[in-house]
């Protein structure tokens, strides 16, 4: 590809590209990358009107005031400081092999996570990979190879961050796929879909023009488990923040329901209701009780737009079980006074209220998360879901899957789409044998396993009633893992057990490819160096910012560091050794695939390839008729018969006949949603006996200063007090927030290094004592880089997922649980710990950026 990046007079290169971190082809956070003398010197927002002076942004008007997106991209700190990550001292710069792994002899799988690594050549690495794949195929069959190729990450098209090897494995005869559970969406996917359909994700869809309708008609927005100042950053940027300020300007009340005074609440909240983690279901039920007993719900709507309300009413009023779900009953569970619950219910019952979610936060990722998700929808229905001012909408992922109906803001003319061109995974390539991501440890250590549903986010509810098995009767167990998204350890469930699984002799070869030596790379046998998005030519689209849609030819900003290659190039080299290069690349060069992306994205009729390269980007016009689109579920509200939902009845289902028919004995996801503090799968509430030993509820948010496990090495961010806490050993520990009352009872002071633990293991963290978290809770973000002191027992990096619950959402719902679980904490004597584990404390470490690749050499 010709380097047509704009240049200024002194030769400094300026490149326009997307810099979001969703890893699909739908990018955001459009930037100008400025390079001088071969190095990135700064990253700045893109000004959409630099090349398009007549560009017209959309504009919403409500209550005499107007809002329109700025002409400058609202990029987050992750994007502004990304050169920190590109030049991280933890970059993998050449192929690396575990020193005591001998593919022709002793593999020493028990030493994974402990052994050091040695540099090898690309030829040696490729020889090993080809030989191992052939051996696995001849010995077991191709389905003995597990592909881990999902998750968030850098966003590329041709050089896709995830899944480039799946095409090659298919050409070689197949593989076993790790299917990604709907992390962040568990409650909606496994619960809410049984109430209102809203296929395939479970949160409200369509959300067309919902924000405009809210600004005109809602009295309040309840931000439920939602932090609009944090969660949208990586996927959309910071437009959500601007919208929240406008809501306040319009006089719309913002009520935040969450255990922590999160970053959004601290800026925007008119009222903060600090409930205990994973008690939302009890609060919803008490609100419903108030409405039923005081007659403040929309009875006519419930009669004409729903089914099964009588069953729900019997449960709420206590007819079914003898326990009325009163505010007093709920108060003891949620940890807020009964008068607060009554006031919330009465306000909601008399005003137009919409609910904003940030995918739902920790409340949607806890034990039995199906219940609060279903109950939230039912309460919206009781107030006339779909009427003006009564909606649910997300504060991020606007335009997910390139669907306009997932965007609550004014639409563009179209959303550029290059999904079918990208060289990574595609949704339709699921092989016959697969394993849910949150059950991989069980698949390795405790086969056979069974579960319901593919767990794939784009599959419909009917899939949840199909039982699957691993291994298939005529398929092998897995004996090799090929991963391009090595973050099991820091993002999934009970990952200490994952570490045990990866050390099993059953897994004979683990191949990882990644730009940084972090997390699961420590457990690999061979690690290949991959490039960042700054080091390869590609093509990108901005699709989810909510501001504009745009496309970019993306010339590389800098030359590849070390001996790194892109994911696509690595797999192409392996394909060539199998004699499959032509089939793998479909006979196209990288430049030809980039041109194909341009031709497929939808802009070719509006701007030529040559002009696009000359200007560096193209902005898609907005839909001039966006105001004509009806908001959200208003067609269902107005005429449910002709605009049915995708439930079997076509209506809101207070009682799910499908659940009753398929799982008649399921007390953990019953036909009528209910309060479930404990059950067969989980004993993680304060009502359980375990609370005597572990009296704190752990709340784990989407990180403020990371995107899941990305960005933990960014120097500029690590200087922020809420990002890391410096210990007396100069190590920067992951902060754990807790209330002064909890600190005083344990003799912990702000800045102390503490140990958070339960029977699944322990982590170290830095104490952040604050009134911004309610008593009874310890809050720590997920995604901190794994840095084990004792593998499988104690982690220094603050990887909270090492001690999260093992089992899935519930018996028949294969989601992940990573928040709302029990633990205890105590102050740690670092000198004593260092004396016991000197090697762990003497590894090379850079406080500015954290872990260094030298620690494993």
Q: Layout of helices and strands, plus pairs?
A:
Elements: E1 13-18, E2 26-27, E3 30-36, E4 39-45, E5 60-62, E6 65-67, H1 77-80, H2 83-86, E7 96-98, E8 117-119, H3 122-139, E9 145-148, H4 164-172, E10 176-179, H5 186-196, H6 210-217, E11 220-224, H7 239-249, E12 253-257, H8 263-268, E13 271-273, H9 280-294, H10 299-305, E14 306-307, H11 309-317, H12 327-334, H13 338-350, E15 353-357, H14 370-382, E16 392-394, E17 434-436, H15 440-445, E18 449-452, E19 467-470, E20 480-483, H16 488-491, H17 495-502, E21 509-514, E22 526-529, E23 538-542, E24 549-554, H18 567-577, H19 581-585, H20 590-600, H21 609-615, E25 618-620, H22 634-638, E26 652-653, H23 657-662, E27 696-699, H24 715-718, E28 725-726, E29 732-733, E30 735-738, H25 740-745, E31 753-758, E32 761-769, E33 777-779, E34 788-790, E35 794-795, E36 821-827, H26 830-836, H27 838-841, E37 845-846, E38 850-851
Parallel strand pairs: 2-23, 9-10, 9-20, 10-17, 11-12, 11-15, 12-13, 14-26, 15-16, 20-21, 21-22, 27-33, 30-32, 32-35
Antiparallel strand pairs: 1-3, 3-4, 5-6, 7-8, 7-22, 18-19, 23-24, 24-25, 27-36, 28-29, 30-33, 31-32, 31-36, 34-35, 37-38
Helix pairs in contact: 5-14, 9-12, 9-13, 9-14, 12-13
């Amino acid at each position: 590809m010709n380097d047509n990046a704009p240049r200024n007079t002194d030769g400094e290169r300026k490149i326009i590209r997307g810099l979001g971190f969703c890893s699909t082809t739908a990018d955001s956070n459009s930037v100008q990358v400025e390079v001088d003398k071969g190095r990135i010197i700064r990253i700045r927002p893109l000004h959409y009107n630099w090349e398009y002076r007549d560009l017209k942004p959309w504009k919403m008007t409500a209550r005499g005031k107007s809002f329109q997106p700025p002409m400058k991209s609202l990029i987050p700190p992750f994007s502004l400081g990304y050169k920190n990550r590109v030049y991280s001292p933890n970059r993998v710069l050449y192929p690396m092999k575990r020193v005591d792994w001998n593919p022709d002899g002793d593999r020493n799988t028990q030493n994974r996570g402990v052994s050091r690594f040695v540099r090898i050549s690309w030829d040696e690495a490729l020889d090993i990979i080809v030989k191992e794949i052939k051996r696995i195929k001849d010995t077991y069959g191709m389905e003995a190879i597990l592909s881990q190729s999902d998750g968030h990450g850098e966003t590329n098209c041709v050089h896709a961050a995830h899944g480039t090897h799946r095409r090659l494995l298919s050409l070689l005869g197949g593989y076993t796929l790790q299917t990604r559970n709907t992390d962040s969406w568990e409650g909606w996917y496994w619960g809410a879909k049984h109430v209102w359909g809203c296929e395939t994700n479970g949160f409200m869809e369509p959300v067309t023009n919902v924000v405009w309708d809210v600004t005109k008609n809602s009295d309040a927005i309840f931000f439920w488990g939602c932090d609009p100042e944090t969660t949208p950053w990586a996927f959309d940027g910071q437009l959500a923040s601007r919208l929240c300020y406008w809501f306040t300007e319009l006089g719309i009340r913002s009520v935040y329901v969450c255990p922590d005074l999160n970053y959004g609440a601290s800026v925007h909240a008119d009222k903060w209701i600090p409930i205990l983690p994973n008690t939302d279901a009890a609060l919803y039920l008490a609100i419903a009780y108030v409405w039923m007993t005081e007659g403040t719900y929309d009875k006519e709507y419930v009669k004409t737009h729903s089914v099964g309300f009588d069953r729900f009413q019997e449960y709420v009023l206590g007819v079914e079980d003898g326990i009325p779900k009163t505010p007093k009953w709920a108060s003891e569970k949620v940890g807020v006074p009964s008068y607060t619950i009554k006031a919330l219910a009465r306000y909601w019952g008399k005003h137009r209220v919409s609910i904003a979610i940030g995918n739902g936060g920790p409340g949607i990722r806890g034990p039995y998360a199906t219940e609060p998700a279903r109950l939230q929808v039912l309460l919206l229905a009781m107030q006339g879901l779909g009427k003006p001012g009564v909606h649910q909408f997300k504060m991020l992922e606007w335009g997910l899957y390139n669907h306009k109906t997932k965007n609550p803001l004014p639409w563009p003319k179209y959303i550029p789409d290059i999904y079918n061109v990208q060289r990574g995974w595609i949704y339709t390539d699921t092989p016959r044998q697969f394993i849910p991501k949150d059950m991989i440890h069980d698949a390795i250590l405790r086969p056979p396993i069974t579960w319901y549903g593919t767990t794939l986010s784009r599959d419909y509810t009917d899939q949840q009633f199909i039982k699957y098995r691993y291994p298939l009767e005529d398929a092998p167990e897995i004996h090799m893992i090929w991963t391009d998204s090595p973050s099991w350890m820091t993002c999934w469930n009970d990952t200490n057990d994952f570490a045990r699984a990866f050390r099993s002799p059953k897994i004979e070869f683990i191949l990882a490819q990644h730009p940084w030596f972090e997390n699961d790379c420590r457990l690999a046998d061979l690690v290949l160096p991959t490039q960042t998005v700054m080091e390869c030519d590609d093509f990108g689209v901005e699709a989810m910012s909510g501001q504009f849609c745009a496309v970019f030819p993306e010339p590389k900003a800098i030359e590849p560091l070390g001996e790194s290659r892109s994911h696509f190039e690595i797999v192409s080299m392996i394909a060539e050794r199998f004699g499959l290069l032509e089939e793998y690349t479909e006979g196209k060069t990288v430049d030809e695939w980039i041109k194909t992306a341009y031709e497929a994205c939808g802009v070719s009729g509006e701007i030529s390839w040559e002009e696009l390269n000359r200007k560096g980007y193209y902005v898609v016009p907005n839909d001039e008729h966006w105001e004509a689109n009806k908001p959200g579920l208003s067609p269902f509200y107005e005429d449910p018969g002709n605009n049915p939902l995708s439930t079997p009845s076509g209506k809101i289902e207070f009682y799910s006949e499908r659940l009753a028919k398929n799982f008649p004995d399921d007390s953990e996801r019953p036909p009528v949603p209910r309060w479930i503090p404990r059950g067969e799968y989980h004993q993680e509430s304060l009502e359980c006996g375990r609370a005597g030993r572990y009296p704190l509820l752990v709340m784990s948010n989407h990180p403020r200063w990371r995107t899941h496990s990305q960005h933990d090495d960014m120097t500029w961010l690590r200087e922020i007090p809420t990002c890391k806490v410096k210990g007396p050993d100069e190590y920067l520990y992951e902060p754990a927030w807790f209330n002064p009352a909890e600190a005083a009872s344990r003799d912990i002071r702000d800045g102390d290094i503490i140990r958070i633990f339960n029977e699944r293991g322990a982590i170290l963290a830095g104490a952040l004592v604050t009134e911004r978290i309610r008593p009874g809770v310890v809050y720590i973000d997920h995604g901190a880089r794994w840095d084990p002191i004792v593998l499988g027992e104690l982690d220094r990096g603050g990887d909270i997922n090492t001690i999260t619950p093992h089992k899935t959402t519930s018996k028949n719902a294969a989601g992940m649980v990573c928040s709302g679980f029990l633990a205890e904490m105590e102050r740690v004597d670092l000198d004593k710990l260092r004396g016991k584990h000197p090697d762990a404390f003497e590894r090379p470490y850079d406080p500015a950026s954290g872990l260094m690749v030298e620690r494993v050499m």
